[in-house]
TrEMBL record:
It comes from Oryzias javanicus (Javanese ricefish). This is Ig-like domain-containing protein. The keyword Transmembrane applies. GO terms for cellular component: external side of plasma membrane. PANTHER family: FC RECEPTOR-LIKE PROTEIN 4 (PTHR11481:SF64), IMMUNOGLOBULIN FC RECEPTOR (PTHR11481).
Amino acid sequence: MELAALCSVFASLRVLPSRSQFFQYESVALSCELHGNLSGWRIRRSTDEGNTTEDCPSSSSVCFIRELYYWDSGVYWCESAEGKCSNKVNVTVTALDLILEAPVLPVVEGEAVTLGCRNRTSSGFFFFFYKNGLLVGNSSTGNWTIERVSKSDEGVYKCSSSGRDFFSPESKLDVTGVSGETPAWPLMPIGLPVVGVCLMIALMLLCLKRNLKGTRSRRFMRSRVPVGSRRAGYD
C-alpha cells in the first residue's frame, strides 16, 4: 500500500466490467495499460480482509478472478519492479442484493455521467440515489444521469430501492478538469526542456536552409548575366 502511494504514476489500471462494485460470485478482469513494454509489471492489491498487500492471483499485468468473494474487496493497482505504478481502484464485493454502478476512473467535467442501481434478485423497484448521505435523485429504471457533471458533483454516492431496508455500498465519484488534470501517463519533468531544444534545432535548420537557398539563387542569377554586361561593369 505504501509503495502505491509513493511511486510515480506511469500506467492505468482498467477494470472490466467498468465498475468498482460487484456481487459475490461475479467475475472481473483487471489489466495494466501503458505506452511501452508491460514486462515486469504486475497487479497488486491490499485487501480489507486481514489488511494484507499481495499480488493479484495471476501475478502478472492481467488478472482474472472467476468468482469474487467478500475477502477480495480492497484496493488494486499496477506496479513495476522499478517502483512505477498506476491509479488505484477500490473494489467492493458484497453479499447483499444491491450495488451501485459508477465510473471507476475520474470523469471529465461537462460530460454526461450515468449511475446505475442494480438489484440482483428482483426488478421493477423504484430506485433512489444519494450523495454524501442526501437524496439527490430517483429513477424507475435504475439509471440516473447527471447531464453535465461538474466539480460540485464530486462526492460519495450510494443507492437504495423501494421495498428494501438497506443501501448499496458507497462509491466515490471524482471529476477532473476539461484539460485532464491527472493523465494516465504524465510527461517526465525533462519533457519541456527537450521540446524546447528540438524547436530551437528545427528553427536553426530552417534558417540554414533558407540561407543556402538564397545563396544558390544569387549564384544562379549571376550566371544568367551576359558576359558583355559583366565586362561593362568592370570598365
